[in-house]
């Protein structure tokens, strides 16, 4: 009995101790939860602050890599927004097995790039990895769809490091190979990659992008003597010009401030093409169209190429240069080709064929004194992808970059409106208006305005060009498009009777073409023949009844 009382006493004394221990554990658990909550909140605050700071922070811009709007997609152009060979960034990573074949090539390009730099490869790898890791918030802020992907910081940093080094190696192999030599015996794999038109097209897909800040970080660490300059604009200009070079554009001295604020490759091409178009057309000021504030301006070209010719418009291929130096350019191209061949013969270590010429898409329309000049449009297997993705970028840029809030006088905020050109969108609309049947396609091909490397029929080319304007918003076009469309719709400088005869002839050909297309579909020809024979039989029966022998 005494022993039992002693045990009960010991248990009674132990109970407060156990309660104090459980209380300490509960307090520790609540403290850990509070710490985790504070950490998550701090991460969220840092992420939000990064988004706000990157709204208009040079080439670091929030939500600058969007998703293609569904209204721009249909069954004929959906594949134009998907990569064919290589994935850049997190959007399509691991989406298809055939896209994994380029991952080894990327790693080889990374290995070759690190051996171009002077120093310890392991140390460079460590420095680049740390820099990419620290830029995680800025990188995530660039993507509109990043919350849907839910990548860990490690996986995202790995993608940025490999894809960034891959792109940087392409740039250096194209424009700085002689300056940054590699001691490795095999040639750079980038030299063969640069000859693949599909790869260069995939680089220009809107959803297949990485922020250009990644290339600036890597280039400064690996090649400080070439890219780490006192003036950041020099580095920006060098990288942007290298991108223009691999995408088929001959860069010039671009002074537009937007050229230094491009957040990725598509915007670099977009700014360059639009500014080059303005330079060629000698635009001095904007064309102002007076409209009622209650009306929506959605102009459309109402005359096809054949009807424009009937109205007296002369359609011709635009000259290559505005200064008339075509002969000089021809000699320069010949001399440059000879130099490249001699270089490939002399350099025995890197036995790689000369790079095939990759041409960038450029558009030019000018209507003056009854003459419509159009730049040559070359149709290749990657034309649709390049064209569609820049159109999608122009739509996105129109929504978020038309105006910015700036500080005004006495602390008052003011809206700063930015003039944006939509050359690719306007060109798609103009070609859509110029072509209403296969006869218009033939007319433009005969004038060497359209050059089809895919050997499509005129009907297929007609469908191809119409698909480029699918889902395009007419409300985003600029004043230069409005001016040329208004002038073409109003122009008339031919004999009335002759003009009407040409128009009726063209309309008859168009309706005949439509009839042939209709009869080729499904069983329409059989149904039409049955209907025709039924009609003949009915007429014969009626005539035989009313006109008996």
Automatic annotation (TrEMBL):
Keyword Hydrolase (UniProt): no
| Keywords attached to this entry | Membrane, Transmembrane, Transmembrane helix
Q: Which Pfam families match?
A: DUF247
Positions of transmembrane segments = 523-543
Quote the biased-composition stretches of kind Polar residues, using this chain's numbering: 1-36
Segment Disordered: which positions? 1-40
Q: Please give the superkingdom of this protein's source.
A: Eukaryota
What the entry lists under PANTHER family is as follows: BNAC04G53230D PROTEIN (PTHR31170), DUF247 DOMAIN PROTEIN (PTHR31170:SF20)
Protein name, per record? DUF247 domain protein
Source organism per entry reads Medicago truncatula (Barrel medic)
């Amino acid at each position: 009995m005494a022993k039992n009382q002693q045990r009960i006493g010991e248990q009674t004394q132990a109970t407060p101790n156990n309660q104090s221990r459980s209380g300490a554990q509960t307090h520790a658990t609540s403290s850990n939860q509070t710490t985790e909550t504070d950490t998550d909140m701090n991460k969220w605050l840092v992420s939000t602050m990064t988004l706000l700071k990157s709204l208009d922070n040079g080439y670091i811009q929030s939500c600058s890599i969007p998703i293609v709007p569904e209204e721009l997609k249909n069954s004929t152009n959906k594949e134009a927004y998907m990569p064919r060979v290589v994935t850049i960034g997190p959007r399509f990573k691991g989406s298809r097995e055939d896209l994994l074949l380029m991952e080894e090539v990327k790693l080889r390009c990374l290995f070759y790039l690190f051996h171009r730099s002077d120093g310890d490869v392991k140390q460079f790898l460590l420095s680049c990895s740390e820099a990419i890791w620290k830029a995680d918030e800025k990188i995530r802020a660039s993507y509109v769809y990043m919350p849907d992907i839910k990548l860990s910081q490690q996986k995202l940093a790995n993608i940025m490091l490999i894809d960034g080094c891959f792109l940087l190696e392409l740039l250096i192999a194209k424009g700085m190979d002689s300056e940054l030599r590699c001691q490795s015996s095999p040639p750079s794999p980038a030299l063969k990659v640069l000859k693949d038109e599909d790869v260069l097209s995939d680089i220009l897909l809107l959803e297949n992008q990485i922020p250009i800040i990644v290339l600036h970080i890597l280039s400064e660490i690996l090649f400080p003597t070439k890219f780490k300059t006192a003036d950041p604009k020099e580095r920006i200009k060098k990288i942007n010009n290298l991108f223009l070079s691999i995408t088929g554009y001959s860069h010039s001295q671009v002074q537009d401030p937007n050229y230094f604020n491009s957040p990725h490759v598509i915007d670099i091409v977009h700014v360059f093409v639009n500014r080059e178009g303005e330079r060629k057309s000698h635009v001095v000021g904007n064309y102002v169209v007076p409209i009622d504030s209650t009306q929506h301006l959605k102009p459309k070209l109402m005359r096809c190429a054949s009807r424009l010719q009937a109205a007296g418009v002369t359609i011709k291929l635009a000259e290559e240069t505005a200064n008339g130096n075509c002969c000089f350019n021809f000699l320069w191209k010949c001399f440059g080709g000879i130099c490249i061949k001699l270089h490939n013969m002399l350099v025995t270590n890197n036995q790689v064929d000369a790079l095939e010429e990759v041409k960038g898409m450029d558009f030019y329309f000018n209507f003056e004194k009854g003459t419509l000049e159009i730049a040559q449009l070359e149709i290749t297997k990657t034309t649709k992808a390049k064209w569609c993705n820049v159109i999608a970028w122009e739509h996105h840029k129109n929504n978020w970059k038309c105006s910015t809030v700036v500080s005004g006088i006495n602390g008052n905020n003011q809206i700063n409106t930015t003039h944006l050109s939509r050359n690719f969108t306007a060109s798609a609309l103009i070609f859509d208006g110029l072509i209403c049947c296969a006869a218009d396609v033939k007319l433009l091909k005969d004038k060497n305005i359209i050059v089809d490397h895919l050997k499509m029929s005129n009907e297929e080319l007609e469908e191809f060009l119409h698909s480029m304007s699918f889902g395009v918003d007419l409300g985003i076009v600029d004043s230069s498009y409005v001016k040329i469309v208004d002038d073409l719709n109003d122009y008339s400088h031919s004999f009335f009777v002759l003009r009407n005869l040409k128009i009726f002839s063209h309309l008859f050909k168009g309706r005949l073409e439509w009839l042939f297309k209709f009869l080729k579909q499904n069983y329409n020809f059989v149904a039409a023949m049955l209907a025709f024979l039924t009609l003949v039989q009915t007429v014969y029966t009626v005539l035989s009844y009313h006109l008996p022998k």
